[in-house]
Amino acid sequence: MSEPLELSKKYQHMVTQCSRCGFCRAVCPIFDITKNWATNAGGKMVLIKEILDGKIEPSEGIAKSLLCCTTCMNCTTNCPSGVDPPEVIRATRKDMVNLGYDNMFKAMSDVIAKTGNIYGEKEKYDWGHKHERAPYVLFVGCVGTYREEESVEETINLLDILGVKFTMIDEVCCSGVLEDVGYQAHKNLAKHNIDEFHRTGVKAIITTCPYCYRVFKNHPFYNGLNLELQHITQFLAKHDFKVKTDKKVTYHDPCDLGRHAGIYEEPRQIIRKIAPNFVEPERTRENAMCCGAGGGFRGSSPKESITIARTRLRKIMEETGAEILLTECPSCLHNFRNAKLRRWNIEIYNITEFIGKLYKEMDVRKNVAA
Amino acid sequence: MNTMHEFIDIVGEDNFSDKIEDLIPYSYDASINVYRPDALIWPETADQISQIVTIANQKGIPIIPRGAGTSLSGGVLAIEGGIVIDVSKMDTIIEIKIADRYATVQPGVICDNLNKELSKHKFIFPPDPASSSVATIGGNVATNAGGIKGAKYGTTRDYVLGLEVVIPTGEIMRTGAYTMKCVSGYDLPKLFAGSEGTLGIITEVTLKINPIPLHAMTAMATFGRLEDAGHAISETMTKSNLIPSVMEILDKVTLTSIRENTPIELPECEAMILTETDGYTWHEVEAQMMVILEILKKNNPLAIKTAKEEKERMELWEARKTAYATLSRISTGVLDDVTVPISKITDLLTGIQEISQRHGLIIGTYGHAGDGNLHPQILYDSYNPEQVKKMEMVESDLFHLAVSLNGTLTGEHGIGLSKADYMGLEHDKVEIEVMKKIKKALDPNNIMNPGKMALHL
């Protein structure tokens, strides 16, 4: 058996480097709703420090407490001491699992291994678009496939309208999320996806999910991919669209797309083409607040996750007065839609879904006129 | 029924914790002290706090009030165990009354959030601690927080008009007034400001607010000798016939750490002065700055640069605000806040350098030189007993130096635990006795933040 806390020890210097200045309190989506210092990055650095210094013993409670982080990296971006708390927390979560503390994600790991998706769904909708040869493959991920199907449908519709030649594969979960919650990605699933990509002979992969994008780009299991990789916003940024909306539109930067992948400009390039009345929220780009869905937090604390999404959505509405909130992440989309109160006068879409919808409306108008 | 259940009945289960994973983080603040409380409570009303304190007073349970916990002196730590009362959930801005120039807030309101709301009315609460993005107003009052604008705009105490406080017996007291002036009885709001939670829990604060100066201009001057920077500061504060809104100094160690750890471009030099003038017309702001620039020029600067553009100015102030945390990237640090009369600032600067060399520990120094308040940050390896001992000797020497220069142990961080042993160095026996009598009169059972400010010794 490996040494206890082996992974966390690699980050001892970072834990010591935390000056407890508390600046992370201002940007943490979980602290924002709990006001409990223990749920914040600085609090967790202290907790991990005491474990590493041998002052306290790891426990089930500590393992659960360490799940209170969406790994949104807002603390990292704003840490003047140069600490990367999500990186440290991920390592300690793994140590906790190795020490035998089941942090409730073992079941998810098993389900992913068994069914190839995070929800354990046995059947999935067939989107068609299975071609033997195409320049691009569209990868839509678990949340898109099983929870935000309408969004995926509109995205496919848009790509068809734009004349993009693409294929879809028999995709399985990238399984990267397991690395966030104490477990490891499944190599056989990665191999399945890689084999599928190569089988189609495509030159590039387009992902709608920024998390899958990150995993394909950074996880060693995908080292053999050797294919161009684009998030759908990068792919569409160079396209022109024949539709526009007069409505007031705003944009939420998904953490996985923004702080994790550094993609801020492309979504805005697309939005400016279709929405002249575009307005930024106060906390945006590198400082955008998280929707509360990431890092396994939606799974471990569903109620709080929705509260965070509701808080973010309410702020965006107050600050911008927008009628349309766009984002480009199935998880953000899913959390916001679940969090939206019926009486709130705002519609929420992925960018691609929204453009697809505008095209559809234009067609309807044309047909009526004809 | 045990006491913890009584507390849960008052605030609800969601607002109480005695889980170790919650208690550990609350064993720390930004100082080097560590003391674990027995339980944590997040009250939502003054009435809840009153009920909790009443029980604690009857049973002799220590109560430790806490805001954002950015304290640098151990002031929010449970040295005798007990209950931490975290007021972060009491974060409502109750009233902004521009017509009468005051704002009333709950103690958990974040300093920057108050200023964001005030700015909509072109008003400001001027004290500006580096932690303003997270520091709570309750904590600011309890520690009499200062900041970079102290020389011209004073500290939190100067803005406290009125308070609502739960005193150690559990009674709720309203003190002060909504007026700009008030000599009606003892000035209790001013006593509670800076009392470090030893006299009660602040549950509401009425603050004087100022109109925002419409214009500001920043200048940066670099020096090859620390003494030249020190003289420039003393001269500006005493001979210019004006008070700059800011007069900050950063030494070589601090500048190097900021330069190496942030994208901010800073010059290589022994010391840098950052100064700002503000006012209601450009003419006024520029005229003041011209006077200061003349003084800076007379003191052998390497370079002088002015910044009028907001972005350029903000970048320089950002550099200053990150000093503490960027220095901590080098190693663990103890941050002090010794303060001396302005004419002694050069002696303090050179004295700190001498102490650093004598003990062989790196000290990064920066601070609000315009009001004589410096922040020497002692860098050491907290896992090395020899270095820990050296750090303690350095700190002792710093305090002796400050007091020998007619200064004080602490300009704005407070005594807390870190400086409690040195109270006798600065205060005579009679004064300490008076402080103890005040404490005893209000808190006969010594339950309110016990062990702080040497009031128990």
Distinctive features:
heterodimer, A: 370 residues, Fumarate Reductase Iron-sulfur Protein, Chain B, domain 2, Rossmann fold, 4-stranded parallel β-sheet, 3-stranded parallel β-sheet, 19 helices, B: 457 residues, alpha+beta, Alpha-Beta Plaits, 7-stranded antiparallel β-sheet, 5-stranded antiparallel β-sheet
> Oligomeric form of this entry?
heterodimer
Distance between the termini of chain B: 34 Å
Summed up, the domain count of chain A is 3
Main sheet attributes: strand count, strand direction, barrel closure of chain B: 7 strands, antiparallel
The outline of chain B comes out as: globular
Report the radius of gyration of chain B as a whole number of Å: 22 Å
Strand tally of chain A is: 7
Average predicted confidence as pLDDT of chain B: 95
Fill in the CATH topology of the domain at 90-211 in chain B. Answer: Uridine Diphospho-n-acetylenolpyruvylglucosamine Reductase, domain 3
Instruction: Give the CATH level 1 class of the largest domain in chain A.
Output: Alpha Beta
Classification by helices and strands of chain B: alpha+beta
CATH architecture of the domain at 90-211 in chain B: 2-Layer Sandwich
List segments of chain B where confidence is low: pLDDT < 50 over at least 5 consecutive residues.
none
- Which class of the domain at 90-211 in chain B in CATH terms? Alpha Beta
Measured as a percent range, the helix fraction of chain A is 40-55%
Strand content of chain B: 15-25%
Biggest beta sheet attributes of chain A: 4 strands, parallel
Q: How many alpha or pi helices of chain A? A: 19
Report strand % of chain A: 5-15%
Largest interface: A-B, 31 and 40 residues
Rg calc of chain A: 21 Å
Explain the overall architecture:
The complex is a heterodimer of chains A (370) and B (457). Chain A has three domains: 6-98, Fumarate Reductase Iron-sulfur Protein, Chain B, domain 2 (Orthogonal Bundle); 136-236, Rossmann fold (3-Layer(aba) Sandwich); 249-369, Rossmann fold, CATH 3.40.50. Chain A is 48% helix and 7% strand. Chain A has 19 helices and seven strands. Chain A has a four-stranded parallel sheet. In chain A, helix 13 (210-218) links the parallel strand 3 and strand 4 (228-231). In chain A, helix 10 crosses helix 19 (351-369). The longest helix of chain A has 19 residues, at 302-320. Chain A is globular and about 75 Å long. Chain A starts with 5 loop residues before the first helix and ends with a helix. Among the domains of chain B are: 90-211, Uridine Diphospho-n-acetylenolpyruvylglucosamine Reductase, domain 3, CATH 3.30.465.10; 215-319, Alpha-Beta Plaits (2-Layer Sandwich), CATH 3.30.70.2190. Chain B has a seven-stranded antiparallel sheet with strand order 15-12-14-13-17-18-16, with helices on both faces. Chain B starts with a helix and ends in a 15-residue tail after the last helix.
